[in-house]
Write a structure and sequence with these properties.
Elements (H helix, E strand, L loop, with lengths): L3 H7 L13 H13 L8 E7 H4 L11 E8 L4 H18 L13 H7 L6 E2 L3 E3 L9 H10 L7 H4 E3 L15 H8 L10 E6 L2 E7 L10 H19 L4 E4 L11 E9 L2
Parallel strand pairs: 5-6
Antiparallel strand pairs: 1-2, 2-3, 2-4, 6-7, 7-9, 8-9
């Protein structure tokens, strides 16, 4: 286990690495963690460590490492959210042992990655991440990308999370036992920093939604992967805070704003 909250608070996407190979000890720890990885949606996600030189992989935004982690998944119920949840769990664990990551979807030599992952009919490989030790100083391109994406900015708490229904913004103070977990959810990374997750708190339940702002791709709905990433922040935080509960489909009778879609609910049991 690792301290998820501390990792979430300190997490930064790393595109500039210092050129060192990952130590045998860290590599073993990472491989062992990946073998235990699960998500609450019971979606089987297959991870693999890949060497860029061996498989002719590249990303125009990454410097200072030849190593990547990629993952593939079979299209099944909730595959995008299960995939995002598992992938972010791996990234947070990597950070806990000093390894930097950044979740990449568009800026990858996709064909080479899919070949290296042996992606079959009915499977997709939405994202991959470089892995390595973060460089002391970001590359200029990395710094400009972060600035362009406003990577350190997040939508206000009461614009993402709602009290009872979508007409009333929720303050962190009124979120009760879910306050910290929702704040951690707010800080999840997302494609283009679009932050597509929304949530409505209703007693002991939190209903999660997706606000659509991107087209679906052949890889599935990347914004559902983003919601899965955010759900990992939520799920790992409530667990670390000692609360028990389950993710389940329990769509409430709440009128939805345009382009908002129900995803899943979390119900606290104690």
């Amino acid at each position: 286990s690792f301290f998820a909250k501390a990792m979430i608070k300190g997490r930064k996407s790393v595109r500039s690495f210092d050129g060192r190979s990952i130590s045998d000890e860290d590599r073993t720890a990472l491989v062992q963690y990946i073998q235990t990885i699960q998500n609450p949606f019971e979606v089987p996600v297959k991870f693999k460590l890949l060497n860029a030189r061996e498989h002719d992989l590249s990303s125009p935004v990454v410097t200072g490492t030849d190593e990547y982690i990629a993952a593939k998944v079979t299209r099944c119920k909730n595959f995008e959210i299960g995939y995002g949840y598992s992938f972010e769990s791996v990234c947070l664990y990597a950070q806990s042992i000093g390894i930097g990551t950044v979740i990449l979807a568009a800026s990858l030599s996709r064909h080479a990655f899919e070949k290296a992952m042996n992606v079959q009919e009915g499977e997709v490989m939405p994202v991959a991440t470089p892995i390595g030790y973060p460089a002391y100083k970001r590359s200029i391109r990395d710094s400009l990308m972060r600035k362009g994406l406003k990577a350190d900015d997040r939508i206000a708490f009461d614009k993402l999370f709602f009290d009872g229904d979508f007409t009333k913004g929720l303050s962190k103070e009124n979120a009760g036992v879910f306050g910290e977990a929702l704040e951690m959810t707010r800080w999840a990374p997302s494609a283009g920093n679009k932050q597509p997750w929304r949530a409505v708190v209703n007693g002991d339940a939190v209903h999660f939604y997706k606000a659509k702002s991107m087209k679906d791709s052949p890889l599935g709905d990347i914004q559902k992967v983003d919601v899965g990433i955010a759900l990992a922040h939520f799920g790992l935080t409530v667990k670390e805070n000692g609360y028990k509960g389950l993710f389940k489909e329990k769509k409430p009778e709440i009128s939805l704003p345009d382009d908002v879609q129900y995803i899943i609910s979390y119900e606290r049991s104690e």
